[in-house]
TrEMBL record:
This is Acyl-CoA synthetase. Residues 9-384 form the AMP-dependent synthetase/ligase domain. Residues 449-525 form the AMP-binding enzyme C-terminal domain. Pfam families: AMP-binding, AMP-binding_C. Gene3D superfamilies: 3.30.300.30, N-terminal domain of ligase-like. Coiled coil: none annotated.
Length: 540
């Protein structure tokens, strides 16, 4: 059988109707109550022309409406399009147009004003749903468009007037789920997942703690026997790791805790109120400010319910993890390895030699440039994901062919550019993204490894590592760093001496560029193009 994500949700809602599904701003919503509201949102979308396979862009921050809109469109077979709300106007135009978005759901006035400038440029757009008050600019922009097209403006609050019935079209499990991933370079790419593959890989078959569920009946039975864990998603829902976590814990019958924005002060202060047990972050960009706040409030805030912090979507340095354990030694820390194009690949651990390693798994292998499997220990190649993988990139057959090739034996794999090698014990050691590999005098340096070392320096709050031209070595390692509040700016020599404690000499930065703020996306992704330009401007 094939799983459909909407049916998965309905199965859980019927199995544990009285459990709290969502906590937002101190208010709780049960599975049963929110399911009825989601039905109404689904009927609202359908009443205004949204149907199966229509793309619907979620131009939203975290909110209850974000969750109901996402699940509502899945109930009618529509396709969600996640939107990075910090994109510039040209980037937004690209993603709305590239995704063929037939509808856009928007809330904040500043977002509405940007959207107003784009409405006439989006040929597939038919409907704009607005949460809250409509700005004058957006109201003026909709209506009749060039070429006779009409764009309708709808008050999202009209969901309350719709039917609560589950009278939706039949589902197959082959429906599309679309995740746009910006990565670190280039325009965003739309990763196409079938619902069934999405359920089996990114959300671990509905059970990341054991065997995957094989039927809706098993899912319903097991969710009743599973405790209701409270899980705070600190990342914005538009991020792949956040959406994976949302569906994973819905499949477990858990309680999701949402904050409007990533605000460490609120997250820490609300742990007792929300009885937070687990927190999802995205690497050091979220981990560092969160642990700083926990350090500041230690002894003042009750952390007794909190037992786990997990990171996904970006490397989480040992130094930040150690600081969490210093606050609460019994915390379980988990660094999840994965990507929008592969889903959940398992836990990445730091071994006794300082290697970032994924234990021996059937989900991954190492291949050479011709996509032949490498089994020889310590031979560097590309990390390939196997099993349930995406259909490809939306409207981009060339990138699809490069990223999702087929091996000679017919196995289709996902190759994203992550470099690594097979360890003697069968596990895979992660070196870093090949596109961020620095070749200095013939030696290869992976940016992530150096960044992890820099994050351990007490005066550095964030860092990116990039190559800069070098007359002798071709490329040199440059560090672009942000200084921690109330810390004294270290010299290059001091940073180099610190890095030599854990890095080979050729990996140590040869230049240091201090900036007011290291640029990242709201989800913590590195902006390497910006960092390279900043480094070259100083070192040229």
């Amino acid at each position: 059988m094939k799983f459909n994500l909407a049916t998965v949700f309905e199965t859980v809602a019927d199995a544990v109707p009285d459990r709290v599904l969502l906590s937002y701003d101190g208010e709780g919503f049960t599975y049963a109550d929110l399911d009825l509201q989601i039905n109404q949102v689904a009927h609202l979308l359908a009443a205004h022309g949204v149907g199966r396979d229509d793309k619907v862009a979620l131009y939203l921050k975290n909110s209850v409406e974000h969750v109901t809109a996402l699940l509502g469109m899945l109930k009618i077979g529509a396709v969600p399009v996640n939107i990075n709300y910090r994109y510039t106007e040209p980037e937004l135009e690209y993603i709305f147009d590239n995704s063929d978005s037939a509808a856009i759901i928007v809330e904040l006035p500043e977002h509405q004003r940007i959207l107003a400038n784009l409405v006439s440029k989006l040929p597939e757009l038919r409907t704009v749903f607005v949460i809250g008050d409509v700005t004058d600019e957006l109201a003026a922009a909709v209506g009749e468009q060039p070429g006779g097209r009409t764009v309708e403006l709808v008050d999202f609050a009209e969901w309350a007037e719709q039917s609560t019935e589950r009278d939706f079209p039949e589902r197959t499990g082959e429906e599309l789920y679309l995740i746009y991933t910006g990565g670190t370079t280039g325009y965003p790419k739309g990763v196409m997942w079938q619902h069934d593959d999405f359920f089996r890989k990114p959300i671990s078959g509905g059970n990341p703690y054991g065997p995957p569920r094989e039927s809706y009946e098993e899912l319903a039975r097991e969710v009743q026997n599973f405790p209701s864990l409270s899980f705070l998603i600190a990342a914005p829902l538009m991020h792949g790791a956040a959406s994976y976590s949302l569906f994973t814990f819905l499949s477990l019958g858990g309680r999701l805790i949402l904050e409007r924005d990533f605000d460490p002060e609120k997250i820490v202060a609300n742990i007792p109120r929300d009885q937070t047990q687990m927190i999802l972050i995205v690497g050091d960009a979220m981990g560092m400010p969160l642990v700083e706040e926990m350090e500041r409030r230690a002894g003042e805030v009750d952390f007794s319910t909190l037992f786990s912090i997990a990171s996904g979507g970006a490397i989480w340095s040992k130094s930040v993890r150690d600081r969490f354990l210093a606050v609460k030694p019994e915390l379980m820390l988990r660094d999840n390895f994965g990507a929008s194009e592969s889903g959940n690949d398992g836990e990445i651990v730091l071994d006794e030699n300082g290697n970032l390693k994924v234990p021996d798994t059937a989900r991954m292998m190492v291949v050479d440039e011709r996509f032949n499997r490498i089994t020889t220990p310590n031979e560097v190649g590309y990390i390939a994901r196997v099993g349930n993988i995406p259909l490809g990139y939306y409207k981009d057959p060339e990138k699809t062919a490069r990223t999702f090739p087929t091996m000679e034996d017919g196995t289709r794999i996902s190759v994203l550019g992550d470099m690594g090698y097979v360890h003697d014990d069968g596990g895979i050691v992660f070196l870093g993204r090949g596109s961020q590999c620095i070749n200095t005098g013939g030696e290869k340096v992976y940016a992530e490894e150096v960044e992890a070392a820099l994050h351990g320096h007490p005066a550095i709050s964030d860092a990116l590592v990039v190559p800069v031209p070098d007359a002798k070595y071709g490329q040199a390692v440059a560090a672009v760093v942000q200084i921690a509040e109330d810390e004294t700016e270290p010299s290059l020599e001091e940073v180099q001496e610190f890095c030599r404690q854990s890095l080979a000499r050729y990996k140590v930065p040869r230049s240091l560029v201090v900036v007011d703020e290291v640029r990242r996306t709201p989800a913590g992704k590195a902006d390497y193009r910006w960092a390279k330009a900043a480094a070259e401007a100083v070192t040229a």
